[in-house]
Amino acid sequence: MWIYFLLGFVGLLVLFILAIVIRTLSFKPKDKIAVDETVIEQDKDLSVHGLQELVKCKTVSYFDKTLEDEREFEKLENLIPTLYPNFTANCERIKIDARCMFFHWKGLSNEKVSVMMSHYDVVPVDESKWDVAPFEGVLKDGVLWGRGALDTKATLNAVLRSADTLIKDGFVPKNDVYFAFSGGEEISSDGASKIVDYFEQNGINVDLVVDEGGAVVENVFPGVKAPCGLIGIAEKGMIDLKYTVSSSGGHASAPKPNSPVVRLAKACSKLEKKPLKAHVTKPVKEMFNTLGRHSTFVYKMIFSNLWLFKGLLDKICVMGGGELNALMRTTFAFTQTKGSDAPNIIPTEASMVSNIRINPMDDMDKVLKHVEKTVKDDKVTLTVLHGTNPSRISQTDCDSFNKVASAIASTWKGAVVSPYLMVQCSDSRHYGRISDKVYRFSAMDMTNEERATVHGNNERIRVETIYKSVEFYTRLLKNC
Fold first, then answer.
1. CB neighbours (10 Å) of residue 188?
2. Angstrom distance (rounded) from CA 135 to CA 124
3. By Cβ atoms counted within 10 A, which residue in 122, 137, 157, 343 is the most buried?
4. Cα dihedral sign for 464, 470, 473, 479?
């Protein structure tokens, strides 16, 4: 009898393996996105000049307002009519009580409104670590250097240059288009939220929002060699969480057990060893289902059979960390620590901060409960410094998503366009109040080296990327 049982078991195993192989072999790339072969004309010198002038404005935002130079923000705003005269002559500027620029381009209809977003503030710079001056708009060897060249004055310039040229050529959009530019995105100011208030109060139906986010990048997905145009359809939430431990202090020559730093180290170690559960959310599932089809056989097997290999994928993510792991779960990055002011003194108070990026299947309350349960030390006081829940998840099976996808595929021929989960935060999260068609795509193709300069040293952009950015927005605006 046992022989029949063994034969039956082997037969089932063979069928099981065969089913996995068949699913893997049938996991082929989806139908290609519609590509528009129309050649987009532009004045390339003007495209570069506009960004060059914007970069020269030292629009650095700080949480400490006394460090800001308001004249630099005014300088940039006053440049807009000069750099984009057709745009400012035909688009009404709507006044909002916040540092922002908000414009309305009237179309033939107001049924399906589009919103083009960007921000014109930038993060601080350590000029001593730059190879060129960061606010002089240095252009050499086909590369424009400067803080904000990528984040995000490039898209600000591109969308304005595109609209300016289209208006000059007599183009009128099918539907109203709004341009929403914040001067305080880097410090989470209220410009974007107040613009959303305007849409809400005036009952305006927002059918498409495009803000910074993904880009055209390479070597970001296992086994995929083609460039990937990533459209963020949601973004993770964020908590800056402070952990504090107090004590009576004392001399370091006679330390007592469990000093503040030791307690913090234990808390950090526990949280590192016990991450929150992984989730294959809608943005990640759609990314796997799109890019996984272009991967190697082994990865195709995993992504086409997640019901079987999800645990293995989770282990790969935990061991490797990085972007793939960040897509799958809530992550903890311990970023700041503080102890005593002298090397031979036990601190009376020690603290550390973790920057937590919250998966869409989690929320702030769930994360804080996890921290309390994992740390399990009533001597460790938790304080939320900043916090926001994950954004609303946007649709992909709709015309709005297809417009963005088509503009990417038409501009960067050969790129595989895919939804993804944005692990950073942006102003676009506020638009979840009024729309489920909010897409995060920075209209640029960037190398890993270039991506590393965002918020870093020697930020720069190739002039070819500037041209492509303008082309992307021209294609997109023509379909709005």
1. 17
2. 11
3. 157
4. negative
